[in-house]
Amino acid sequence: MNLPEAVTIREVCLRDGLQLEKPLPLADKLTLLAAIVDTGVREIEATAFVSPSKVPALADAAELAAELRRFDTVEFSALVASANGARRALAAGFGSIEYVVSASDGHSRANVGRSSAEATAAITDLVGLAHDGGATLEVIIATAWDCPFDGPTPAQRVVDIAAAATRLGADRIAVADTIGTTTPVRVTELIAALRPVIDGLPLGAHFHNTRGTGLASAYAAVAAGVTRLDAAAGGLGGCPFAPGATGNIATEDLVYLLRDCGVQTGIELPAAIAAAAVAQRLVGHDLPSALLRAGDRRTTIKR
Amino acid sequence: MNLPEAVTIREVCLRDGLQLEKPLPLADKLTLLAAIVDTGVREIEATAFVSPSKVPALADAAELAAELRRFDTVEFSALVASANGARRALAAGFGSIEYVVSASDGHSRANVGRSSAEATAAITDLVGLAHDGGATLEVIIATAWDCPFDGPTPAQRVVDIAAAATRLGADRIAVADTIGTTTPVRVTELIAALRPVIDGLPLGAHFHNTRGTGLASAYAAVAAGVTRLDAAAGGLGGCPFAPGATGNIATEDLVYLLRDCGVQTGIELPAAIAAAAVAQRLVGHDLPSALLRAGDRRTTIKR
């Protein structure tokens, strides 16, 4: 097993974590953000510029953006699903834009009202907008393993989108297990198929723990060459297509696993557990994090 | 990654799963057992012959044993921690005995009142008793990675116990992550250290999901050469040393992961989810199983 010395964890609690919660007041988001920044994380997905009526929890994207300048140790990114969203994100000052393309038509149409091919073709415009605005553009390929409408996603669709994104000038590529269904061997196989077509671009992965396999998939991804992982404090983040399911992989659980595998993340585990506790208090319900309950073995074992 | 075509899952819900629950009536245990047998599992750890005052939930071990003959597709085993327990298990008709040896002195003394070396030396007697009674003897090495009292367990202690067990005639070896702290690289390294000293004996592993890493560790174990895994329906089973922590890895979550990794278990996933639901109903509280909430992707995805 060849593991890298370090991986980058991007904290997505503020965006993917909160997007299905009852809207949190801006002041609470800033409290959570401060706790997250204290963990030592270097990249945070702060919000999304999408329809406020579809995602009311993120309707304050521009107001939140105006507050981010105080946190100067962190690279903030915003997620968008259209050129219009990218314009709003750039206007709000974001230097890092994530553009989501669904690899399946069912999810693409449900999410943004156009086919996967149409969303892929738009990468050209998104790259142009981002680069003209002095920002980087990451293409996140959603439903990379399974679609809630279309079933399993053929790997070739994901490979084709990654190749197109690379050709069209994207700065980073990521694959997302949108509904939390994938497992290690499927991860290993898809990452192996992607690496030859992305011309050395940084490759990230985004897992949900909906079926308990999120950390196993993350481990397999890192072993296969992924150097960037998304995670959310406390494991916050439901899935609209799987009621009752758990959310993103929990940052603190991922940091625990990676630390004990000898992979550095720059994130301090006690601070990550503290941030998860803040997230849990602010959303007002139990989060699925394991470390939040059980604690780090180094502090819970008596000596 | 070299994965085997198949692994054996031993269902431990009736023993490790129930041992800290309020004692379940025998009739309820038989209801649960019937649901578990229906999953297609071939090995079930039915109970333990230990002090009824220390583990009241398993005080009915002999009565339960008398009811097992009706399930003739399954190999039942019983866990013991002493020669006296082995004699009771053999008298009750068990043909497969598991003898637990803690690799750390702190846990060994707390659990059975003697040192790890003393417990290891007793393997001779246990093998003799089991073989004289026509039974097989598995040595389960507890606290194989961490001890709740002594901290991290030196791998050499586990290797020495496994070598002794092999030399003294044990039929199988297993390692247990008793407090749910281990992670994939530590698993890979310990399994690699064990394989040269166990003379080709079947090697099993037992994980708890206390820190969310149970399935990742199980995957790493299988990739490293383990062919036997313990799991409990619903993820039942608390840990006395980690209040609020989750229990064993859930059988249905493990079967899901292994199936999608191309590794056969002989267990039918819908029946495993149904057994988890029975376990949840009988113990009367929510279980940590992911599949019980989210379902198999093959049945929850619309097509």
Describe the structure.
The structure is a homodimer of 303-residue chains. In chain A, helix 2 packs antiparallel against helix 12 (269-283), helix 9 packs parallel to helix 10 and helix 11 runs antiparallel to helix 12 (269-283). In chain A, the strands form two sheets. An eight-stranded parallel beta barrel of chain A has the order 1-2-3-4-5-8-9-10, surrounded by five helices. Residues 240-244 of chain A have low confidence and may be disordered. The first copy, chain A, is built from 14 helices and ten strands. Chain A is α/β, with parallel strands linked by helices. Chain A has a single domain, classed as Aldolase class I (TIM Barrel), CATH 3.20.20. At the A-B interface, strand 6, helix 9, helix 10, helix 11 and helix 13 of A face strand 6, helix 9, helix 10, helix 11 and helix 13 of B.
What would the principal axes of the Cα set say about the shape of chain A? globular
**SSE topology string of chain A:** EHHEHEHEHHHEEEHEHEHEHHHH
The radius of gyration computed from the alpha-carbon positions of chain A, rounded to a whole number of angstroms, is: 18 Å
Q: How many helices of chain A in DSSP terms?
A: 14
**Pairing-aware structural class of the strands and helices of chain A?**
alpha/beta
Q: In oligomeric terms, what are we looking at?
A: homodimer
CATH homologous superfamily caption of chain A: Aldolase class I
Number of structural units classed as domains of chain A: 1
Fraction of helical residues of chain A: 40-55%
